[in-house]
Amino acid sequence: MNTDEKRELKPCIALTYRTIDPAADGRFAYENYVDACRASFGPGASGLRRTDHAKWLRSRVEEFPDGHVLALLGDRCVGQLELQVPYGLTVGYVNLFCVTPAFRGQGYGRVLHDYAERYFRSWEASRITLDVGRANRSAIGFYRHLGYELKFSSRSNQRMWRMEKSLVP
Predict the structure, then answer these.
(1) What is the DSSP letter of 88?
(2) Which of 23, 106, 114, 162 fits a 20 to 30 Å CA distance from 139?
(3) The pairing of beta strand 127-133 with beta strand 91-99
(4) Domains contained in the chain, CATH given
């Protein structure tokens, strides 16, 4: 088997998913959020203050509990997803898609994305959108590989790109 074939394989081990507990998982969830900010905006970026993030996370988990999850392999966290489909809309939005550093480059991102697609389809979303930092080349490449297309700059400061994927066959 050549290297390209190995990269295409998904891990055989099934992940389990559980709703983020803002009280117990808040620090870990915030660290993933800051990691994503730094990947998008550079090493000095931090995004929301921790207390503001905690409030935001609590409200999102209350509204979209199955969309705000940790992906687990045994007792180890493989990644974190923050997904939502606002009421009355057919567009799902990815707030955060994070594979923890120890599991990057091993196909777990695709497994997490499978969960995200199932989640969005369960809400009858016809497409998925997300914003990604223009400097985050690895994330842009990953999303393109999954079928996302660059749509437009979503922020006036031009630091983010909007990407979109159709869920319609």
Answers:
(1) T
(2) 23
(3) parallel
(4) 14-166 (3.40.630.30)
Amino acid letter, residue 86: P
pLDDT of 44: 79
User: Are the beta carbons of 37 and 47 closer than 8 angstroms?
Assistant: yes
State how far the Cα of 45 lies from the Cα of 33, in Å rounded to an integer: 11
Q: Report in angstroms the alpha-carbon separations of 94 from 15, 23, 50, 98.
A: 19, 22, 20, 10
- The residue type found at 12 is C
Tell me the CA distances in angstroms from 169 to 70, 98, 121, 166, one per residue in order.
28, 26, 12, 8
User: 154 pLDDT band (50/70/90 cuts)?
Assistant: low
How far is it, in rounded angstroms, from Cα 124 to Cα 165?
A: 14
Cα–Cα distance for residue pair 152/109, rounded to 1 Å: 24
Q: pTM of the predicted model, to two decimals?
A: 0.87
Distance CA 103, CA 73 (A): 10
107: region left, alpha or beta (phi > 0 left; psi from -120 to 50 alpha): left
